[in-house]
Amino acid sequence: MRPWNFSAGPSALPLPVLEQAAQEMTDWHGSGLSVMEMSHRGKHFLQIINEAHDDLRELLSVPDDFEILFMQGGATAENAIIPLNLIGRQGLGKADYVLSGIWSEKSCKEARRYGDVAVAGSSGCASVINGLSQAAFTWFPEPAQWQLRDDAAYVHLCSNETIGGVEFVNWPDLNALGAKGVPLVVDASSHILSRPIDFSNVGLVYAGAQKNAGPAGVTLVMIRKDLIGHALPHCPSAFDYANVAASGSMFNTPPTYAIYVMGLVFKWLKQHGGVAAIEQVNIQKANALYNYIDASGFYENRVHPSVRSRMNVPFFLANEALNTTFLAESEQAGLFQLKGHKSVGGMRASIYNAMPLEGVQALVSFMQEFERRHG
Ligand code: PMP
Questions:
Q1: From atom 15 of ligand 1, which residue's Cα is the shortest distance away?
Q2: Residue 72 DSSP label
């Protein structure tokens, strides 16, 4: 049996996807070619990329007035590509950022290179939320308290902080918060396709593929069409959304193999009932892990219960001196990559779509057994 892989990303892919890719490695559908060897303009690859676009639209019910783009450079490049494309929209060069952890901080820092960037709200300090004392970046700033500028080109947030384990899904209507017509831009890298997306309140959603959607190398961008075509003059041509959209994500040679494997993940997800069905499994998985952690006293998750991520579960051992032993023994038990991010410490279990309930149950059993021996 393969180990259970709790990596935050690149992360576990569904086994049937890996097996199909292996089977098709040297001869895709009788073409005589590996997908890696095909022209991106040939009929075979066109079929692959078109199906991937269509399947993603179907899986997330992406509205018709949104363009789906497959880009390169990861979410990190999008942190620059977004202001390069959007910040000059009304000629004012302003954007507002909500800070909820390391990834949104990075986005904000990068955007400052391109314009007048303000912090709309931040959880970067300790606070008391519903009677619970929360450390920095273990809660989410309340939208009603965001300081929004009605002449900003967009408001940016990260809806799942992969490192902090904070997930925020009630994306507000910015019109109701006084920022009329200002689009919301969301970094959904680490929970894309784990639950449905309500597109009514957003202008752009982006995500690196290497957690829930496929291998590293391709970035998903879903953008409302009216937001395309406003790039700054110095925006690189390959990163101008207008060029990428007009060329069907083929302004330059796309990451063909990554798109192919991502397309297999989309088909796997469709076979398993789509996003609504996987969401139910994700709820079960997250409940199994959080319920055990909360009840144990030996382990602890410090994120406010209202914004705990279903995908990334950071946890601490009450006795941190046992960390090394925990990691060594968990690996021996076939539970891989549980070490927490260095900025947070402790452990982190990333339980994306490809992790079945069985894998989470194996983790909980190991944690119980470890607690019994060391508690
Ligand atoms: N945003 C989030 C939420 C992430 O988790 C990551 C990667 N872990 C990034 C951005 C950066 O993505 P990439 O490394 O693909 O540029």
A1: 74
A2: S
